[in-house]
Please model this.
Amino acid sequence: MLRAFAGLLVVVFIVVGAWVLLTRNETPMAAPASPEISAPAPAATEGKPSEAPAAPTPNAGAASPENKGAAAEGAAPAAQGGSPTETAKTAEKGSLKSPFADYASVAEEGHKKYMAAGCNGCHGGGGGGGMGPPLTNPVWVYGKDDDTLFRLIALGSDELQKQGYSRKGSENVVGPMPQMGTVVKSDDDMWKIIAWIRSVNPSSAGGSSASASPPPQ
Model:
């Protein structure tokens, strides 16, 4: 009987073992972890190409070469009006006219420029003369018109005579007039100095509209 019981236990163990094995085989195994996959880049919107990064906006205040050229051209003050020496050398004889018909309106400024150029060193602070002839008397050695006065101051008396201008009067002081066209900074300044001279010399009336007279025969 013991043998029969022992045999039964063996059968039971075999059956249980077989059942356990069958049960394990039927349990689904966990899938191995897949390696990490980076997320794909977002696709472009359907029907629209992906936009490239916007180019940096150029500085609106930065000047292009063309703008720089235009700025440089407009930088020179309109009042400069050129070099008195160059103007006197290139302008046609008798063609220089003052832009200041009302010379009294710029006379004060003209006096400041007269003093700044050192004209007072020869002609006196008020134009009464000194080393040079006075500017306040009726004697105009070469003439009193705009064209002659401009050239006389800019070029000096020697160069003025080379352009065909001659003496019409005389003064006690007979020294030559030096060139001042490189000292007076611009044509505009020169005309303002002439305006001041006219404002202190009553005999200059009509001088702004007169033309250069031919030399005496």
User: Anything to note?
Assistant: The CA atoms of residues 5 and 11 lie 10 Å apart.
